[in-house]
Design brief:
Strand content: under 5%
Number of strands: 0
CATH architecture of the largest domain: Alpha Horseshoe
Number of domains: 2
Distance between the termini: 35 Å
CATH superfamily of the largest domain: Tetratricopeptide repeat domain
Radius of gyration: 20 Å
Helix content: 55-70%
Order of helices and strands: HHHHHHHHHH
CATH class of the largest domain: Mainly Alpha
Shape: elongated
């Protein structure tokens, strides 16, 4: 694991768990497998190509979530359980970010029905994620363009209550990156979510 060989780490852990299913270090093995699954291909994508991890295939992060969840449920008193739960929260935000980027993709292409469906899916699947208010803004934007003023007004009301400073309420979101950044392969990826965070900072 320390050498960065995540696939070898996981295969070794799997052999250990099959051979010693009741050994006292089993909780740590699940924790380490979760760490390894979290780190598979992340170094290359983030450090070399500077890609946001939410935009890669989510199969291994989902497996990591499963590993941490198994640890937290089977061994709730383990010394690793608290950190596993926090990592599950971080992974849920990663999954929510993936849904948000997809919703923004649809908004950008005027695919209002698909954008609304993604925003609704995010709210239902990842409640309390750090992107929940952005998801409400997606619904407001999509319903406005669809001409459904009732649902658009509902989204605005919810956003005014939960995030009154959200830029969508001022007509300033989504604010996509410049065309130059989109065409520059060395600029790294950035979405309207990143632009919003930069404005908040």
């Amino acid at each position: 694991y320390k050498a960065g060989k995540m696939d070898d780490t996981i295969s070794t852990i799997d052999r250990f768990l099959r051979t010693y299913p009741t050994q006292r270090n089993v909780p740590y093995m699940y924790y380490l497998r979760g760490l390894a699954n979290s780190g598979r291909d992340t170094v290359f994508l983030q450090k070399v190509w500077r890609l946001d991890p939410s935009r890669r295939d989510l199969a291994t992060p989902m497996q990591a979530y499963s590993d941490f969840n198994l640890l937290a449920e089977r061994y709730p008193n383990s010394r690793y359980a608290a950190d596993a739960r926090q990592r599950m929260i971080d992974l849920r935000n990663l999954f929510a970010r993936h849904e948000m980027d997809t919703a923004l993709y649809y908004l950008r292409r005027d695919a209002w029905v698909s954008a609304a469906a993604r925003g609704k899916h995010l709210l239902e699947t990842y409640p309390q994620s750090e992107y929940q208010n952005d998801a409400v803004a997606v619904l407001g934007e999509a319903y406005t363009h669809l001409g459904n003023q009732t649902l658009a007004a509902d989204a605005r009301r919810v956003l005014e209550q939960n995030d009154p400073k959200h830029p969508w309420l001022r007509g300033e979101w989504p604010d996509y990156p410049s065309s130059f950044r989109k065409l520059n392969p060395f600029a790294g990826e950035k979405s309207a979510v990143d632009v919003k965070k930069e404005q908040e900072d």
